């Protein structure tokens, strides 16, 4: 028998396999609904129960990839074959698998547009379709919205701390794998970053690709001066030098030898406050006031805030790990819950009341009340058809499975973020001890909830 | 002008674009080396400077995807065109872009096999190739090894806490996007999980797909009893019911109506210790001693340890967020450093000594010293050619750009993990306050370091 080498797998997602990028139970429940001939129109809403630690708002992100998914999800014949052979489906008839072969998402989706500020309990997505369709798409929607929203929110905090200094995403090597780095780069840009080091993301999203030079470049030459000179020869208009490989102040003195064409220096280690001040003095003493100081190395919003409050003369922050993993709050607990169901021609409100995990029934809308200066005053979560005062945040994005929404570019989304943040009063966006933004539930919604809770408790809690 | 809808982007990685899934500076440095005609053979090593919070060892993971990358990285003509147009490359000649069009990785790679235990400072990968090739691949290698190693390590801690009860990965919805969920499922299995809810991962890796049912199933029927009965009709051999939608104890009483064929019940909220005990009593009182209790809901190694120490009668743990994001330590700080370079026929040791970020020069090997019972005693990081006592951990995996290593399956890797952990003495794997495993540097390596440090300081620190 010849010795056959196993080929390494990429584990890349492909459009062909989108149907199974989900939890198994979505497929068993789908089979269950199918076998029970339950094709009721159901509505699910995606929301966050509690804001993560240190967060006072969310920047919604991830909708574009959700729309890609919902308009591309299919089950290839090979994948249907794979599912059919799983022992758990032993008692499920062939018709279900035929159904999967022809599966497309044909429902309606409402969403809060990317870049918009949202708060706990506010539905960011509302999906209405035959119950199998709404169920099957849960996992992917949650994964995408949870992650991108989490990173856009973190990035917005870091950008806020930087007080107008530019923030660049340097996080690719610390993101949760190479694809997460691309989604993170997108979300960081939405949150206000000026660019990314991730070339794939820059290419796909048409955003600035940014970079300086690594220690290895400096180490690869006989001495630091040589490495600086040679870099400048090749990148005369983009000479930002990394000066901390051996000794930061010596590095700064080597960098100034480049002269007027020097664009920037980067410091990646040590006491950034002290070093940036001393490096600034060295640059200025040579008449290089225009040379920018870039700082990097385990930065986050608190460290940046601290540096700038203490007068660190830093112009640009390269932020990695902390931003692309949202390190202090690395998961957003978004959930996706059944809120109502059309059963035998009747609309039935649905809710659960597991301990600490109660959900509100019925299709909802979020109404944002603003003052004359367009500043945000409060949000009311009400029923979809209540027509309350305020701007409705959920808008239609998919109708009968087709996109009915003009997708903004990430540049436009970045402007939406910036505009939203400009109208969120300062007490609600302080980095620490921010006030809680007022979000209430409408009387109509509370009434529906009490009614549904009573009915369901009478039936189910014996 | 007709109104054209922008198509939503998936942002999926593809083999065609692997060349640019990297930081921009890798490409500018590559251009720099090329323009300087610097084609020295360089060696880089990938290692972790400090173990993350609460970690006393690492389970190496991610090598298979690294090997896929290194044997598939190319630059398509479209991508070369994109790069050529970036302003930063204005002064770079056409030859470099022709070079990229023909780029393949042709170097040698040594690696610590997946599933092996490693510690801080130990090279997990060693890459030797012309310097451009070693440089270009840095970011992807770091991203893949950092993430998978981080998750495999976290999973191994959770499995250890579960004391033989099974642990299942339920984390897809909270991973950092859908691709991260697949890589996480792989790493969780390597770390000792019995299965995953992620169907794509199960299909690709041939590992068990596991799942129960969600609250939405229960909510979609008129009452809980109905939902249980109907699930059992379709999945008679796999009836594990979720009992906490309305009231856990009422749910348990509804579940026992299924009778002897009931396989399990899942509790996803509330006080798991008290509820599991009461649910066990309800099951046992109906003669359903064989019915398993599955617990889920924000579990981690500490909560599982606490539950089991207090006698919670739980058989299986579904773990999500905490495991797939390694929530208490969501980033592994792996770095990739130039350690030596062949320049004009001479081997030159390379190192940096940035504050707190000193690196050791020269090609290294990790020697693991074991006792007669195969238990791990200590590791020595030495020079590649020192031939020290102990088992060398780094083995050749790529030679001249071709894989020279018989890739194990994830099942085999899981056994390697389990075998490694069995031989790591208990004080080094306690969940809290574990002892620090002894890792020393060889005299030969220390001598090389002193020599290189002196030479480089004389040249660079003025």
UniProtKB/TrEMBL annotation, chains A, B:
Domain Nicotinate/nicotinamide phosphoribosyltransferase: start-end pairs: 166-337
Domain Nicotinate phosphoribosyltransferase N-terminal: 21-146
Domain Nicotinate phosphoribosyltransferase C-terminal intervals: 392-445
Keyword Glycosyltransferase: yes
Any one Gene Ontology molecular-function term assigned to this protein's record: glycosyltransferase activity
Function (record text): Catalyzes the first step in the biosynthesis of NAD from nicotinic acid, the ATP-dependent synthesis of beta-nicotinate D-ribonucleotide from nicotinate and 5-phospho-D-ribose 1-phosphate.
Record protein name field: Nicotinate phosphoribosyltransferase
């Amino acid at each position: 028998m010849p010795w056959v080498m196993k080929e390494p797998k990429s584990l890349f997602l492909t459009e062909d396999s989108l149907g199974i990028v989900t939890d198994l139970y979505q497929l068993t429940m789908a089979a269950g609904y199918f076998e029970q001939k339950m094709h009721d129109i159901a509505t699910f809403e995606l929301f966050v129960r509690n804001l993560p630690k240190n967060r006072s708002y969310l920047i919604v992100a991830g909708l574009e990839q959700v729309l890609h998914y919902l308009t591309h999800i299919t089950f290839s014949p090979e994948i249907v074959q794979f599912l059919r052979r799983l022992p758990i489906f032993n008692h499920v008839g062939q018709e279900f698998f035929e159904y999967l072969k022809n599966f497309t998402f044909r429902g309606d989706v409402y969403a809060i547009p990317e870049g918009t500020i949202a708060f706990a309990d506010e539905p960011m997505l509302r999906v209405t379709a035959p119950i199998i369709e709404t169920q099957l798409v849960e996992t992917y929607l949650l994964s995408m919205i949870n992650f991108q929203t989490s990173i856009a929110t973190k990035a917005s905090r870091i950008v806020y701390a930087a007080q107008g200094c530019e923030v660049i995403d340097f996080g690719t090597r610390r993101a949760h794998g190479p694809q997460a780095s691309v989604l993170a780069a997108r979300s960081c840009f939405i949150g206000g970053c000026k660019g990314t080091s991730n070339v794939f993301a820059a290419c796909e999203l048409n955003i600035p690709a940014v970079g300086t030079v690594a220690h290895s470049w400096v180490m690869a030459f006989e001495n630091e001066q040589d490495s600086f000179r040679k870099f400048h020869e090749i990148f005369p208009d983009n000479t930002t030098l990394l000066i901390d490989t051996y000794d930061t102040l010596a590095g700064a003195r080597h960098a100034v030898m480049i002269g007027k064409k020097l664009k920037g220096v980067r410091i990646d280690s040590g006491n950034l406050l002290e070093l940036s001040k001393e490096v600034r003095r060295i640059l200025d003493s040579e008449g290089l006031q225009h040379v920018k100081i870039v700082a990097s190395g385990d930065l986050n919003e608190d460290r940046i805030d601290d540096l700038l409050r203490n007068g660190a003369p830093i112009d640009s922050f390269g932020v990695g790990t902390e931003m692309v993993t949202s390190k202090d709050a690395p998961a957003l607990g978004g959930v996706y819950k059944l809120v109502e169901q059309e059963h035998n021609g009747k609309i039935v409100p649905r809710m659960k009341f597991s301990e600490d995990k109660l959900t509100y029934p019925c299709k909802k809308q979020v109404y944002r009340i603003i003052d004359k200066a367009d500043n945000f005053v409060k949000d009311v979560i009400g029923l979809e058809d209540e027509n309350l005062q305020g701007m409705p945040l959920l808008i239609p994005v998919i109708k009968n499975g087709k996109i009915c929404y003009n997708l903004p570019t990430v540049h436009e989304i970045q402007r939406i973020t910036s505009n939203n943040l400009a109208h969120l009063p300062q007490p609600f966006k302080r980095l620490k001890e921010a006030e809680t933004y007022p979000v209430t539930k409408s009387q109509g919604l509370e009434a529906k909830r009490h009614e549904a809770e009573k009915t369901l408790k009478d039936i189910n809690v014996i």
